[in-house]
Amino acid sequence: MTLGILSGNDRNTFAFILQSNNKNDSTRKRYEAVGELVVVGSLDYRLKPSYNLVLFAFDGSNFISIDVSVNLAKSNTRAPQFNLMPGFSYYEYQRYENSSELTYNGPKVFSR
User: What pLDDT, in 10s, does the model give residues 50-83?
Assistant: First the structure.
């Protein structure tokens, strides 16, 4: 299975990749595959607020394409800035399912 983007991928911002398939399943009744559209470049509303992509899949004999529109929200156009606590060069966060507790590589932080 070959996946890709035929058009609309300005500045190579996206990639369409094969996430999984059942190629090695000897009990399968038909071939199934899952593709994933991922962001691999920077998104900037000011430079390009929307993308109109044409994605494709080709299995050696069958070809299919689909149109996908990606619209960016204008709400947050600047990268976040953080003032780190003394002694830290970065923060690493972890959030566990069904927990309001958010931890990072320092003191615990609680979400509300």
Answer: 999 999 999 888 898 999 999 988 876 666 666 7
Which 3-state string (H, E, C) describes 6-21?
A: EECCHHHCEEEEEEEE
Contact 16, 55 (CB under 8 A): yes
Interatomic CA distance for residues 112 and 108, integer angstroms = 13
The pLDDT of residue 86 is 73
Give the domain ranges of the chain.
2-71
Beta strands in the chain (DSSP E): 2-7, 14-21, 33-39, 50-58, 63-71, 93-95, 101-104, 109-110
Question: Full-prediction pTM beyond 0.85?
Answer: no
Measured CA to CA, the distance from residue 51 to residue 72 in angstroms comes to: 9
